[in-house]
Amino acid sequence: MRKVTYSMGVSLDGYIVGPDGDLDWGAPDGELFRFVTDELRGIGVHLMGRRLYETMLYWETADQDPSLDDSMLEWARLWKPLPKVVFSTTLSEVQGNARLASGSVAEEIARLRAEPGEGEIAIGGAALAAQAAAAGLIDEYRPRVHPVLIGGGTPYFSRHEHRVDLELLETRTFGSRVVCFRYRVPR
Question: CA nearest 157: which of 3, 14, 12, 25?
Fold first, then answer.
């Protein structure tokens, strides 16, 4: 059965986006970018909400940007063909290799797990991850903790979560002082 993962950068005080939509504190250095690119190789489909989808639209045509270095071009080459499922009540169409979700997060994950396919089912965005977590559908949490306190914004974890015991599978510390954790939900 395909595993569902939630992997995002997070400030030490628990936010994925700052109070004013600020993300610059989470910009990866080369080492972390290579790690995230390697993680992308293991993804078979990416689920995301409208805001993350709109943020990531740049990567659908990034391979045409002459200012990108080789590592960013590699990311674009991996991202563009990756199947994406977008959850939105306001969008009527999506671009690239994306489709609008036709059901709830739980229904989409059940459908994807039943279909033949390889790679993880990745969830991007805190609101979408909170829905999947509430339904007990996340198999691994992979926060990349940045050494910064941003004081507010969008939390990595929903404040209305139920208790979930986790098993630590891996930690990795980068030269930038970012620490990546990989936790499994024991079943």
Answer: 14
